[in-house]
Amino acid sequence: MTNKNKIHYDLTRILKPLPASRGEKLILIHGSFHSQNFRGKDFRAWTRSCRRAGFRGEISGFSWESFDYGSLLEDFANGLADVARKGIRGTPDLAGRILQGSRKRWLDSKTKAVDAGEELAGRINSLGDPEKVILMGHSLGCRTIKTCLEKLAEQIIEIKEVHLLGAAVPASESWARASRAVRGEITNYYSKNDAILQIPYHAAELFSGLTVPGKKDRALPTAPRKLLNPPAGLKGIRWSGKKLKNIDVSSFVNRHAGFEENLNHFINF
Description:
By secondary structure, the protein is of the alpha/beta class. Helix content is 40%, strand content 15%. It contains 10 helices and 7 strands. A 7-stranded mixed β-sheet has the order 1-3-2-4-5-6-7. Helix 2 runs antiparallel to helix 3 (91-127) and helix 3 (91-127) packs across helix 4 (141-154). The longest helix is centred in the middle third of the chain and has 37 residues, at 91-127. The model is unreliable at 35-40, 68-73 and 210-223 (pLDDT under 50).
């Protein structure tokens, strides 16, 4: 685990309940590629889609520090400096820095997503009326939701329902333990058109098991299996629990960022 005390978390109420709301609380959880400056303002387009989909309750955004672009760019810049200094002999150093940097950032983001899930479970526990809480996550935020649900299940706490958008979580994972913390359904919306989950996701998963220059490789035998295990946001979740529903939204979503902005076409609160 990472040092959770050094990670920024922010649960911000973005929209107040509308008249005649049923007291439900919708919490939105973003995916990767966000820094500690993310905060609630960047959830606004997503919340507008939720309103268009008919949600009248309170909407909050849960942000967490995930992917650090600055450090990755620094790795890249240092690699370019090696190429400039050494000429073509510096090219392997550049490739190594990119591979090592990408691998570290992806693994760090996945670990932080788990830490964020534990933090979110604590926040929900302190909100009151957890049975009226609805979780909606995008991309790696679905890992945060899964961890959160598993923690809530340990405390015998149930929320109302869950919506997963473009989940960057292996399709083969079981949601049995997580489902015990959900009274209603866990709905997984996937799109076969998601280019991010088609290529970069697989590359990141594969790179996380490959040799990094100067490091011993102990995970290489698992790398081929990762290519055979698509993300849930691309093919659906394979676990077939009673509370799980997979919905193909390929006709509405043609890119990874298209889930939030088009959700009013396939979700009806």
